[in-house]
Design goal:
This protein is an all-beta fold and 256 residues long. It contains no helices and 22 strands. It is elongated.
Length: 256
Amino acid sequence: MRIRTAATAAGGTLALLGVLAPAAHADAHKGDTTFTSVTFSKSTVNVGVSAAQSLTVVATAKDGSGIKGIYGGKLVSPDQHITFPVDASCTRPTTTTMKCTWTYSLDANDSDDYADLKNVQAGTWHLDAEAAANDQDFYTLDTSRTVKVKRYAKLTATQASPEPVVKGRTLTVTGALTRANWNTNVYAGYTSQKVALQFKKSGSSTYSTVKTVTTDSAGKLKTTVTANSAGTWRWKFAGTSTTSAVTAGGDSVALK
């Protein structure tokens, strides 16, 4: 898939748009044109419901005849929607190379409704760009360069009671897991998710997982444990392919 319709990333500020993209294909190339490097400022971008998150991508292309231009510079979501950079610039480090830098703003509550993130767009995004050489060679990046864009998750501070607790007695530990709903711009309970309950004994610097608890229909967590030692309890969520990982603040419990 050769990209000739998107604006060149040679400079200027580009509008952030959300439009339907063609179905993804494998990378394609002709001749000796190649991308020597493509780097993302973040491997994962966690987006909440109000604050926009920035992502920068730097790509360098090379061809023996020189690079005429690098076109596209688009990010494509799992549901094939396109996000264009809000800022782009290119330089020519040598006679045979071109280096372009694109900056994107990812937001669930953008003033432009078309640019708003939607829940179906969480997951693996890919960079879509083409380097065109002076001798008509080209290299198209389609699905090989990826970044994770995830819904931001929160855990309430861990609560363990009673405090202090008699050694050997039952301790009740509670919490709640929520994540950003990009469709409604609120944080909602993340249901049916496995969350680790961890404990760090007083004097230690290491947490260990005591058990795994599943969130209820409202995203709440509740379990009981036996208090054998003084220390700190906390919840830890490993995240999913669409939702960020998060660790709750701990609650220190003394024995009496």
